[in-house]
Every structure is written in structure tokens, then in C-alpha cells.
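TL;DR need C-alpha cells for one chain.
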Amino acid sequence: MVINDAPSFIAQYRESFSNDVVRQWGWQDDDADFGKTHHWIVRAASADGTEAEVSASVELQLDQLQLVVSERYPNLGADTQLVLNALIVFDPPALYIDGLETGFSESAIEHVLSEFNEKVAI
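>> reply
TL;DR here they are.
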């Protein structure tokens, strides 16, 4: 299947997400204005500060998808660190992981979705 916009991405990969909210997404004509976004806390920070707070977000626009997983240690006053930052551009096709362009292919998309799901399955 050719992925050239959000509706075609949802049709092919929606079931690949481990998050229930994202798996339920559909795409309507009015979604093109604002897209779809879902943010959630994967794991809260531990009281003693030894476990980081982990958060995730999925942002889908008509022409691209961004996946972000970040962590922070609030008790240590540390800045938020990106664990994964992936941008999939549908047209023209491109895939960026942590700012570096990689090859755009079905297997590359499946790999980044798998990596995202692994990082949010704590």
C-alpha cells in the first residue's frame, strides 16, 4: 500500500500501535485542519527519584506523523530528555529518527513503530 497522507497511514498502520486511543483513530475531512494528537504518561516518576517519568505523544497531521518518547527526573531538577523522536513525512516520503534522515520504506516504518511501542510498554 502507498502511504501518501494521514488517511492512508491510518488504514495501514493504526492497528500497529499499542496505545488504545491511537488504535481507535479514524480520519475525517475536518481532521485536516488540526490533525490528531494524543499525549500520555507512560510511567510516573518514583518518589525517590531513581525512576524517571516517561511520557509519550503521537501527533498526526495530514502530511506527517511525529512520535516522541521523553523522560525526566523531576526530583533531580533535570531537563527532559528525548528517548525517541521520529518524524514520518508522507509526501514527499521521508523518515527522520532523532533528526537524522533514514530510508523511507514499509520495513523502516514498521521498525520505528515497533521501537516506539517497546519504549511505551513499561
